Amino acid sequence: MFKSKYIYLDNASSTPIDKRVINLMSIYNKNLYSNPTSIHSSGVKVREIIEESRGKIAKGLNAHSDEIIFTGSSTESNALAILGLINNYKLKINNLNSNKIIPHIVTSQIEHPAVLENCRLLEERGEAEVTYVSVAKNGILNLEELKDSLKENTVLVSIMYANNEIGTIQPMQEIAKIIRHFRKTSKISKPGMDIYPLFHTDATQAMNYLDTSNVEKLGVDMLSFNGTKIYGPKGIGVLYKKRSVELSPIYEGGDQEFGLRSGTESVATIAGMSLAFEIINKMKVKESERLTHIRDYAVDKLLKIKVSPYKIILNGDPKERLPNNINISITGISSELLVIELDAKGIEVSAKSACKSDDDTGSYVIKAIRKICKKNNEEEGSLRITLGRQTKKADIDKMVSVLNKILITYSKWK
Asked: Which of 223, 252, 280 is the last residue of a domain?
């Protein structure tokens, strides 16, 4: 049984599905079940709806329809962008050069695991070398370090638009400018290498709130996002891939999605994704303004909590962050404990321990922005509080009040 009344503040993990999306998907699931590769009437109808949905998403990004690839998730979209590019590089570029060139990837220390783990996989296999660029204490990428990391064999730069933990927004156009300048000025002698480096971004967290209306202006060659973060269905992702970018599939099959993502497409899920995408674009500006106001209100109230011996710290840049993201550390108490206590009071947030005792697990994002592992083994983790369409100021007041009482209770045991 679900709680009858609770305050949901974990929208960065998953958003509720918009009722309009549910209704549309229900109709399609009931009436349009044919395989879109079939040539009979109902199969053709399904194909038309898929292509219409593809066109709507392309239009919303100022892209071409054949630049939109449907996948199963942002994780798969990221994998296709990274592994698909390297696979294609090995097939095409190394065939043009007598001396095999190990491709180089540049990413950041605070990327989502969907990017980092694929980069590490390629490193472990000896199929690529990777540079992990650092970030400042506010979570913003070190642009000089990025610039210095580019070299003759760099084929890909993958930097997320906005961080999934601390909500920090990266300077996308500045990054794109650095990459374009490198392409124009570097004297690359190897055949086929003049198109690199390419720029990929994981825009999963950004889609709801940041400008994605023109991928050309944004400066990216590839962009990933999914349905579950935009009030759409789970099990659906999108990879925008510029026409000039060549990828190879990461597995073989029925040759769907321009030969890059085999598997029978789900018309209901794709149509639901397209509708959710249309809806967020219509309300993006107004909702961003509303949530920014609530976010700043929440941060102010949280930082005013004074319960000894605990200290509350805001993680990430106070302004250059997503309108719905609040990430705080509370020194001296387990963040997982706080999540459990808040949940018992009907408030749902998420957590990640940044450093607990001598354990080396936890949030690599928080570790990257500041040195927090104490010699005295003091616990410090992070609470991620992420707002959504349903969030009101009253929810924040309740959350802050409950958190304050929890800290007072545990302070008596210190």
From this structure: 280
pLDDT digits 0-9 by tens, 241-283: 999 999 999 988 888 888 899 898 999 999 999 999 999 999 9
Of 264, 280, 296, which residue constitutes the final position of a domain? 280
In DSSP terms, 135 is beta-bridged to 141
The answer to which of 102-116, 139-153, 245-259 has the lowest mean pLDDT is: 245-259
The DSSP 8-state label assigned to residue 360 in this structure reads: -
The CA–CA distances, whole Å, from 361 to 112, 176, 352, 356 equal 15, 33, 10, 8
Specify the DSSP class assigned to residue 169: B
Q: Are residues 103 and 36 in the same domain?
A: yes
Residue 267 and residue 299 in one domain: no
Q: Give the catalytic positions in this structure.
A: 355
User: Per residue in 352-406, pLDDT tens?
Assistant: 755 443 445 678 898 888 755 444 445 566 899 999 999 999 999 999 999 999 9
| Length reported for the chain | 414
Domain count of the fold of the chain: 2
Residues 6+ apart with CB under 8 A from 344: none
Cα Rg for the chain, rounded, in angstroms? 23
Range of the domain at 54: 19-280
Q: Cis omega before residue 197 (within 30°)?
A: yes
With CA atoms as reference, report the closest residue to 118 among 147, 78, 150, 69: 78
Question: What pTM, to 2 d.p., does this model score?
Answer: 0.93
List of residues 6+ apart from 411 with CB closer than 8 A: 307, 308, 309, 310
DSSP assignment of 242-272 equals: -TT-----SS-SS-HHHHTS-S---HHHHHH
For helices 267-303 and 41-61, angle between their N-to-C axes, nearest 10 degrees: 30
